[in-house]
Amino acid sequence: MFGVKDALYKLGRSLTATEDSLSSNGDSSRNSSKNPNDLKQTKTESNLDSKGDTWNDINERDNEMDMLPQVRLIGYLPTTKNRLLTVEMCDEIRMLMPTRIQLYNEWTLLYSLEQHGASLHSLYNNVTPSDEDVNRRIGYVTVIKDRHNGIFGAYSNEPLLPHEHKRYYGNGECFLWKLEKVPDVRIGNNRETKENEEDEINQNEEKWQFVGYPYTGVNEFAIYCTSEFLSMGAGNGRYGLWCDGSLLRGVSYPCQTYGNEPLSKEGEKFHIMGLEVWRVG
Predict the structure, then answer these.
(1) How far apart are CA 85 and CA 92, in angstroms?
(2) Over 80: is that where the pLDDT of 31 sits?
């Protein structure tokens, strides 16, 4: 009899303890999940404080990563008078280049019509890559000046050279481009007469306006060079950019490869007053 009572008494105490334990765990669980955002926020703030960073510091570092190094132009001789390229032009042209090429800050002059003479053969000799450059990822910028002082050209992932075993070469990184000077108009707040407005516009400086024509993918006629001419882009029997073997004349028609307009201010046919080829990287 007493054995049965003792057993019932122990069973009752065991059940009571279990209920208390479950109740305590439930309260603890509710308290821990009550403010998960607070815990997350605290953890984030703790991590920032431990590194000595603030959100402003992080934003400043992101902005620094977005900034490109200033271009250095290497290769002009002190006696070179007609220099086609400036650092400001480079900043415009390289925005359409692949990211890895944009990061190069050294642009090296490989060929200049003024410095090396008007010869396609001379151009090919000067742009031929060295053994060290063959396997490097670099880019090439061709710059042309026409008789109306128009500046235009091309970017290619490979040097402009004739190939015996293939006609067209290059990839989708290639593009055509042109630069035009436009008035850098800054409108003031206090203008009284139309005369003052015209005087203010005349005093404003000019700036370069870049127009790029990237690879469309319609065809694969990126680059085509022979011993008699060099060209980039084609379609329907017309070249996007073509220069003759004497580097005196050229043509630029709308083409399917780059979807471009005529690049020269002279129109579809132009006279070459200056020509340069630069290695980027």
Answers:
(1) 11
(2) no
